[in-house]
Description:
The chain has helices at 42-48, 98-101, 150-153, 159-169, 185-197, 211-217, 229-233, 251-255, 296-309, 323-331; strands at residues 2-8, 17-23, 30-39, 65-72, 84-87, 90-92, 113-114, 133-137, 142-143, 177-181, 200-205, 221-224, 238-243, 258-266, 287-290, 315-318, 338-342. Strands 3, 4, 5, 8, 9, 16 and 17 form a seven-stranded mixed beta sheet that branches. Strands 12-11-10-13-14-15 form a six-stranded parallel beta sheet, with helices on one face. A two-stranded antiparallel sheet has the order 1-2. It is of the alpha/beta class.
Amino acid sequence: MLTVNAYAATSATEPLAPTTIERRDLDPHDVLIDIKFSGICHSDIHTARSEWGPTTYPIVVGHEIAGVVREVGSAVTKFAVGDRVGVGCMVDSCRECDNCRKGLEQYCRNGNVQTYGGVGRDGKPTQGGYAQAIVVTEDFVLRIPDGIELDAATPLLCAGITTYSPLRHWKAGPGTRVAVVGMGGLGHMAVKLAHAMGAEVTVLSQSLKKQEDGLRLGADQYHATSDAETFTKLAGSFDLIINTVSAKIDLDAYLRLLAVDGTLVNVGAPEDPLSVHAFSLIPARRSFAGSMIGGIAETQEMLDFCAEHGLGAEIEVIPAEKINEAYERVLASDVRYRFVIDASTF
């Protein structure tokens, strides 16, 4: 087994700290990846701090992984040594249920295997991308096109696909009006992607402090939700709203911004339950929905789309020693717009 340096959470209250972990020996269909960059996702913080339920410690988080293939198993056909590759939020699924057969592994009826905090087929806990290397079965490895730098591609493996999937599913494109709630790690990618798809894009953010960025990244309009007049002025304006924030919001107020047959999709995952008044939905046949990442084929489609349109995440690259500081900055919304760890510093 391969021993690699990593950063792990050892409890809900202690800072992440350097450690070593073992990666399994390669099975015939496995790929060994030298990690070059690992993104920091809000999900990492929720998990490290047991905010979404009990976490088994120690845990190495990180599910936005970009790197280069070091070694392949004897039966691997999709990748070769030296290929630029990525790994996202899942590393396996049952492959047999109806959802998996449709390419919807993220909704595997038997539960997909998460990149961290899951249990692999070897019966051992999965450990994520805050590490020097990872071993993943080839069917859950993505090819990163040459048109995207590895560091800027890293957040696409979660933030990119999390926003791309609902935009595609609800058919964002020319003639559609899309609003993005929140201008953070997820939100800035939603703006870029919706604009590239040809939609009219509006950002709904607490304040106007990121307005210049929003317009630069592709938004046509930018409004402050702290201004009550925003909800009056924009009532009935949107076909699709992508809510990216991981905090409680007044869903009824946002639902009233939808046109007839419009949909509000939650991709942010707050700790606390959200409530919806039926009469925010009924009068205009509105829908409230949720969406979670994408399947492997759709994630590859997203990466190819980003390469075709010259899209990558807006990032700040940090050394591993600044992970804990970065966590606090994420919580304070003090990053534009995604932290990426240089894996050479693990």
